[in-house]
Amino acid sequence: MATDPDPDRALLFLILQFLDHQNLSETARSLECETGLFFNMTYFEELLNCCAYNEAESYLCGFTDIHDNIYSTKIYFGIRKLKFLEALADGEREVAREVVEKDIEIFDQYNPGLVQQAFELLQMDNFMQVFKFLIIFSLPNLKLRIWSHILLSSYKNMKEARKVVMENIKKCIEANPLLQGKLSFPPLSTTLQAFYMEAMASRGRAPATCRRDFKD
User: Fold this and answer.
1) Does residue 56 contact residue 79 with C-beta atoms inside 8 Å?
2) Terminus of the chain with fewer CB atoms < 10 Å: N or C?
């Protein structure tokens, strides 16, 4: 059986392991999100790298809300800042404006003037050539400064900018008390199939057969 002392929790991890082995990744990620059992950092980073920011937020909300603590707030802010940067890099001013109005405005309560700074960036005439990005995000006992020069015509520089923001997001995830104990998959000493066989044997019942041959 799994090494986790909680049998229900251990069983859920076995199910997650089984789903991944069967290439049922979408179902596995949904179960992670719905149970809040395991935060899949690899999957989360893949979403950010693919610019799937809405999907990243949807996954994150299964574990923490935007106002739960300062770390959660900064994670959500980082995601939306990436969304804003990406829109600017693509020259989509209207999309960037919508991000400010719908996604970034909520953070103005933590750092008054944040929205004004974002709108000033939107009004820059030469932002398609060189973009100087300065946002100071202040929270109680915590301040994050990001200052970088980004050549918007260069994907490499945008990629590097994303990397910097993602590193800060990762640090906040690792420091977030709501995600403690949820960032690593525990060692499992069995599989779901073996566990099922053992459970049926202990009850003196023959395991049910299935038409589909599952991989172990």
Assistant:
1) yes
2) C
